[in-house]
Amino acid sequence: MWKRFFSNIGALIGVAILVTVIAVALLAPVIYPQGPWQMVQRPFLPPFTVDGLPLGTDTLGRDVAAQLAYGARVSLLVGLVSTIVALLIGVPLGAAAGFYGNMVDEGAMRFTEFFQTIPNFALAIVLVAIFQPSLASITLAIAIVSWPPVARLVRAEVMSVRKREFVDAARVAGLTPRRILIAQVLPNTVSPIIVMASLMVATAILLESSLSFLGLGDPNAMSWGYMIGAARTVIRSAWWLSFIPGVAIVVTVLALNLIGEGLNDALNPHLARKARA
Amino acid sequence: QQEGGRLDIVVQPEPPGLMLGLVQNGPTQLVSGDIYEGLLRYNTDLEPQPGLAESWEISEDGLTYTFKLHDGVTWHDGEPFTSADVVFSADVFLRETHARLRSSLAYVDSIEAPDDRTVVFNLKEPFGPFINAFEVGTMPIVPKHIYEGTDYATNEMNATPIGTGPFKFDEWVKGSHIHLVKNEDYYIDGLPHLDEIFYRVIPDAAARAVAFETGEVDVLPGGSVENWDVPRLTEMDGVCSTGKGWEFFAPHAWMWLNNREGPTADQKFRQAIMYALDREFVKDVVWNGFGTVATGPISSKTNFYSDDVTIYDHNPEKAKALLEEMGYDGEPVRVLPLPYGETWQRWAEAVRQNLSEVGINVEIDSTDVAGWNEKTSQWDYDMAFTYLYQYGDPALGVSRNYVASQISKGSPWNNVEGYENPELDEKWEAAATMVKPEDREAAYAEIQKEIVDDVPVAWLLELEFPTIYRCEVKNLVTTAIGVNDGPRDAWIEE
Amino acid sequence: MSDPVLSVEDLTIGLPEGADRAHAVEDVSLALAKGEILCVVGESGSGKSMTANALMGLLPPGVTVRTGRAMFEGRDILSLPEPQKQAMRGERIAMIFQEPMTALNPLMRIGEQIAEVYAAHDRYSTSERKKRALDLIREVGLPDPEKIVRAYPFQLSGGQRQRAMIAMALALEPTILIADEPTTALDVTTQAQILRLILDLRDRHGMAVMFITHDFGVVAEIADQVIVMREGQIVERGAAATVLGAPEHPYTRRLLDAIPTGRLPEARQLGTVPALEIKDLRKVYRTGGGFFKPVREVRAVDDVSLTVARGEVLGLVGESGSGKSTLGRAAVRLITPDAGQVLVGGTDIAALSEEELRKERHKVQMVFQDPYASLNPRQRIIGAITDGPITRGVPRKEAEARARELLEIVGLGADAATRFPHEFSGGQRQRIGIARALAMDPELIVADEAVSALDVSIQAQVLDLLRDLRQRMELSILFITHDLRVAAQLCDRIAVMQKGKLVEIGTVHEIFQSPQKEYTRQLLAAVPGAEWNREGSLTA
Amino acid sequence: MQVLTAIVGRLVKAFLTLLAIAILNFFLLHAAPGDPAVVLAGEAGAADEQMIEQLRERFGLDQPLYVQLGKYVWGILQFDLGYSFRQGAPVSELIADRLPATLLLTMTAFGISLVCGIAVGVAAAARVGKPSDTILTTLALLFYATPLYWLALMAVLVFSVWLGWLPGFGYETVGANYTGLERMLDILKHLILPALTLGLFFMSVYMRMTRASMLEVSQLDFVKTAKAKGLSGPAIRRRHILRNAILPVVTLAGLQAGQLVGGAVLTETVFAWPGIGRLMFESLAARDYNTILGVFIVSAAMVIFFNIVTDLVYRIVDPRIGATA
Ligand SMILES: Nc1ncnc2c1ncn2[C@@H]1O[C@H](COP(=O)(O)OP(=O)(O)OP(=O)(O)O)[C@@H](O)[C@H]1O
Ligand SMILES: Nc1ncnc2c1ncn2[C@@H]1O[C@H](COP(=O)(O)OP(=O)(O)OP(=O)(O)O)[C@@H](O)[C@H]1O
Ligand SMILES: [Mg+2]
Ligand SMILES: [Mg+2]
């Protein structure tokens, strides 16, 4: 599986980009100990004009490169944590629905459908506005709007795995349903979940930046969306201020998508079966 | 002077309603200032000019104000306008709906209409600033024949406002624009010059700038684009700008400092803040050079301003010393920015940076408009940005923020910081009721000198919102409320 | 022999890198004469399908013809440019596939799909095409042609779909018909009908047929010529009678030996202690009932009573959908019956609660049909075998020791314990499944089509193992199969089911030699290549 | 008869869902800090307690929460979305004013993205592995990864500021008083940029889905049957693969309609498009409860409508559904 993953050029590029972004995020406090908010120079310096400020300065004369590095922390953190939270909601719900069926399924699916009926970005806006923007509330809001597809996917996977004969075998062996679900069924659904999770991180990063753009970001956390939102008003005079973080988002999301597709190819049972036959 | 033409003006945000007697927020005043009129208008030196009243007289004792109304004025629906409308508006309608006017009306004993064209206000005691209370946003005259005896808030006519002004309401396409057309029967011959006005709703500041650049709109009233865009736009060919037209409001920005609890309850801490802040930097960078660093509670554009006060320059050392002196233990303070766009956000970030440089731990509290209102009015903040209008006179727009009688939970426009100084309270009260301007001048100078040392709030800037417009548009800003009632006299040069 | 219409010479088909071998087929040569049926037999993966696909020009991506020619109507069809191959397909050479369920486009009416063959080759007007499609449907013996033309595939049974496929293949009266396991997915009765249809059509149209199968019964039924393939090579060829009667190559012999023949084993003495008693069992499935569908009821098991004695192997046979699996699953309580009792050693497990049931579970175990699906791909073998005993309270050490011992018994060796399922072949996996069942010390094993998915040679090994275990452990087995020959090999008694009802039950000899019911007789007659009575196997 | 019960059942379910959404959001909104009366009073530039009390009374905010909820739900049951005190108009009127714009925008974007997405997806699948496929999929990935609002900003910058080809904001030329065809063309001109930016993201989603689905379907057995019949590649793609591959795409597209409606908030903001997304966002800051709830209900209804439509399409295209086997 890993062999196939790493023979995929797209996936390799994705991993390389992501590793770079993660490294920058982790090293941000080392490279820029003064933080992203420090005003260091004249405002509106274009990139590559002043030594030591490769990406120039923003509207208040803060180092854009430092902002970008710290922004990576927030974007990745929000993306990751919200995905984990979404999985924590979606996986158990979908698994229970798919495994126990009947009333449980009915209830869980109605609940999921309900959340899918509310336009998700609008719901995220309301949630963040209500809980007041902070990293925690943004992450939670993103998680709340992004779990339904997880639940649906897990449900479908569990339903198909549940029909496989080894599940019957486990029942005949006298295992309790809960143990069958956890030890036998769920491990067989991880591949599609992993693929979906990698794409969800990407979507979450986009969502965070969109919220931030609308002014619903955490004012104490530097994020890429914040940078674009802040630079939007000067897009005419300093377009690069929104362009640079925009590219950062595009590249990171692209990397995550490439990885997701690579994983999909590597884990896809369809292709795997073909190779086995 | 040329007749005709159309003017496109940005209005932001979209007004909640156009019935000026019910809603007095900025966008409503901008649009409805053309539909409704007050008894008086004010020039940029805040001197009263004829409005619906063609002349007026104040008795020697300052207790009787007599207005002679214009002849031949009609409402937009054709009904004649009379003194009864004025009495109804001031005494009945606005008393119920207009909080700001209500505090001025408290000085009024009675309002009479001896004849169709005369209105007399009788005051209980002299009230110096009363002559400033007849501006259209403060006392809009509303039609008695439409509102008398109805539920004002739900009257159907609110959707199609009827005034006496130079322009008539035509159409409101929600989310897009409001269309006003020339009032052909306007009582001043030759006015207005323009045929129609479109107030354009464009929610995004950058889009507003683009709209101006591409010629979609002709006028950007103060504050409609972010400050960073102002120099770029004004440098374009054929574009003019003016800082005038805000004298009546004289927007004054400061941070509420919670005088009740936390480090901000300590006068030394508050003074330290004043020294820590680099207000010149903010003016130059965040506000792009617009505005003036405030020296105290009264704007230099307002009557009775005095600069004979302690000047707080940017002096981090002094700030640190003061903090040392008070024994500041690093307790974090929260800053609540004003949720009015990027400029204010940047300002809060600059403040956080300034304060952290002198060792104050700052966290920015984030919130939207409703949250900001809630937090300030419920006193749930340490430091909170705001800016308020001065309405031409300290007694109207300044004292309310510093006197103890104005401490009351639930409103973000009174003495929110919780400053209590009984001695000064008396001086404010006395200054308001003096008849002679020279006396008031002296009284206010004394007040300013004293209060600035106390730093009840952290005064920041006298804001300047330049109005940007195409140079073909003439005579647009001639009054103290600028574009709000400017289109009456404006004309376009081909 | 007349001139061959098709002659393949030294065909070698290369597989992409990473496949299990370099060539799918190597140096294959064969000839096909007009009106002749050539059967290609061999185990799974021996290259049968690849040969056929190469002739059609339908090799999957990555798989290429390396060398060789295939002369047909004076041209080498392997090296034709794609447009000409396309023109040839369907018109000169037609093909039908194994899976009738998926080989038709689910969104297109049957008539359209048949008429499409004409459209593809620009024949006839639209209305003419329709008429001809209708004729074809009639010719392949589909009932109610006017209705079938307008039907969608899902409205047809498997056999009907396969007929529709054949109709398509016949549309342009091709010279050659290639049939890649066209009956494997069908039950015996339907299979017999389809084979008869193909023979019939061959006679009427004089097509040459290349028939791919792994079932020697089918070969015996229809073949003129036979080719036996193994790992991409032809190991034996010749006339059907010769190859079946006197095989030369050891592989062919092995294959033929492994075939469960009609020969019946000697009857054994049976005990009378019942291991499993089923009384008046009933299970009704209700499906549908959505907004747009009425509720559909299927009486899968309808008041069936039977007994399996200690040490007995009871075969349960019947065509697809007759309720065999349902009965078997009810016996292990994977299904809760609607009525009736399932007595195992005297306890009615049908009436137990979930909790109580788990304690009794071990008494009845099951061996599942699909050796791939019945093992958790992410669990080591040892875990699969010990899960049950450990849940029952057997200490882990003990359970693992026993598991190793059982792996030895089923002939895998104790070191298989730590491997994952994908590291085993199908037959080996089925042994693991048996070891897993045995680990629970059951009184009865339900084997639901436990050997159906296996190649004949492997099938024989597993059957041997079961026979051996029956002797050694005094196991009772409920052996479910649709393959009567397999049933004849292993079982003591046979129960025949039809549409949920028990039609007939009796000893193997009674059932096979003097079936009482018409349905049983039909079933027996439909088995390809079966000659129960003529072989006189009673005494064998 | 059965179809009728089915439709009635769906409608009842939809109505219950909407009710639940209204109730949930009612509580969410009321849990939020902020008071519409204070906001409204505040915008007047001054307020006193008397005024705020008056406003609260007028808004019904002085009553206990459950009474407010009861009143609201009672209204909903009578298809009454309540009154916006802030805007001084019935919510249904406010929404009706804005809905056409949103519908126009989202439907156009949906149409463009679905049609183009499927077309490009089919084209890419037909050239799988070739450079043109790589280019198309990379482009789609790029659009997928680009934040919507950023794309919108850049589009305005390039096409309306620098090039001056298209209007950068608004719904129509204000005050031009166009009628008939002229007006339609004018609106169309304004529609291009917002619909494209909103559509591009979803187009890339549908394109990727179509491509994957096409490739999956092309593995299915019946495709081999079609080849064996002698059909040409394009004919197989058109008649067999596409028809089967498009179903899951349409279903997913229907499910994703919610995102489309949500995405409109950003597009409407950047392009000053007078739709309900902006109405919601602006009302949110003012805690104009009834308006926000109304927008939520209406947009959820749109999502349900989208779902029902795709469901119907599915039923029409796929004979297996709805038939009794
Ligand atoms: N698409 C493919 N890619 C790579 N190798 C393949 C592919 N299809 C089949 N093979 C390999 O080609 C060889 C021959 O396969 P083929 O399908 O011809 O076998 P078969 O005799 O038809 O078996 P079965 O009875 O299972 O259908 C096998 O080794 C198989 O693994
Ligand atoms: N879960 C289910 N839901 C609805 N109907 C079912 C279900 N399982 C089986 N059936 C139906 O019950 C009948 C009996 O099915 P069963 O699986 O017992 O047959 P079988 O004899 O084992 O057939 P096969 O040889 O094909 O395995 C069939 O008509 C089948 O369609
Ligand atoms: Mg094959
Ligand atoms: Mg079965």
TrEMBL record, chain A:
Its lineage reads: Bacteria, Pseudomonadati, Pseudomonadota, Alphaproteobacteria, Rhodobacterales
Subcellular location(s): the record lists: Cell membrane
Q: Which PROSITE patterns does the record cross-reference, listed alphabetically?
A: ABC_TM1
| TM region positions | 12-32, 76-100, 121-145, 193-217, 238-259
Protein name, please? ABC transporter permease
The record places domain ABC transmembrane type-1 at: 72-260
Species whose genome carries this gene: Pseudooceanicola nanhaiensis
Gene Ontology process terms (BP): peptide transport; protein transport; transmembrane transport
Concerning InterPro entries, the annotation shows:
BP-dependent_transpt_permease, MetI-like, MetI-like_sf, OppC_N
Provide the alphabetized UniProt keywords.
Cell membrane, Membrane, Peptide transport, Protein transport, Transmembrane, Transmembrane helix, Transport
Q: Which Pfam families match?
A: BPD_transp_1 (PF00528), OppC_N (PF12911)
Top-level division of the source organism's lineage: Bacteria
The terms describing its cellular component in GO are:
plasma membrane
Automatic annotation (TrEMBL), chain C:
Which CDD domains does the protein's record reference?
ABC_NikE_OppD_transporters
InterPro entries xref list: AAA+_ATPase (IPR003593), ABC_Ni/Peptide_Import (IPR050388), ABC_transporter-like_ATP-bd (IPR003439), ABC_transporter-like_CS (IPR017871), Oligopep_ABC_C (IPR013563), P-loop_NTPase (IPR027417)
- GO CC terms: plasma membrane
Where does the ABC transporter domain start and stop, copy by copy?
Answer: 6-256, 276-524
| One Pfam short name | oligo_HPY
Bilayer topology term: Peripheral membrane protein
Database matches in SUPFAM superfamilies? P-loop containing nucleoside triphosphate hydrolases
| UniProt GO BP | peptide transport; transmembrane transport
Name the Gene3D superfamilies for this protein.
P-loop containing nucleotide triphosphate hydrolases
Q: Where in the cell is it found?
A: Cell inner membrane
Query: Is Transmembrane helix included in the keywords of this UniProt record?
Result: no
GO terms for molecular function, please?
ATP binding; ATP hydrolysis activity
Top-level lineage group: Bacteria
Q: Does the keyword Iron-sulfur apply?
A: no
Q: Which PANTHER family match?
A: DIPEPTIDE TRANSPORT ATP-BINDING PROTEIN DPPD, OLIGOPEPTIDE TRANSPORT ATP-BINDING PROTEIN APPD
What protein family is recorded? Answer: Belongs to the ABC transporter superfamily.
Protein name, UniProt field = ABC transporter ATP-binding protein
Provide the species name: Pseudooceanicola nanhaiensis
TrEMBL record, chain D:
> How is this protein annotated for GO cellular component?
plasma membrane
What Pfam families does the record point to? BPD_transp_1, BPD_transp_1_N
The stretch of residues making up the signal peptide is none
- What keywords are assigned to this protein? Cell membrane, Membrane, Transmembrane, Transmembrane helix, Transport
What is an annotated GO biological process for this record, any one? Answer: transmembrane transport
> ABC transmembrane type-1 domain: which residues?
99-314
State the family it belongs to.
Answer: Belongs to the binding-protein-dependent transport system permease family.
Name recorded for this polypeptide: ABC transporter permease
Q: Which organism is it from?
A: Pseudooceanicola nanhaiensis
What lineage does UniProt assign to this protein's organism? Bacteria, Pseudomonadati, Pseudomonadota, Alphaproteobacteria, Rhodobacterales
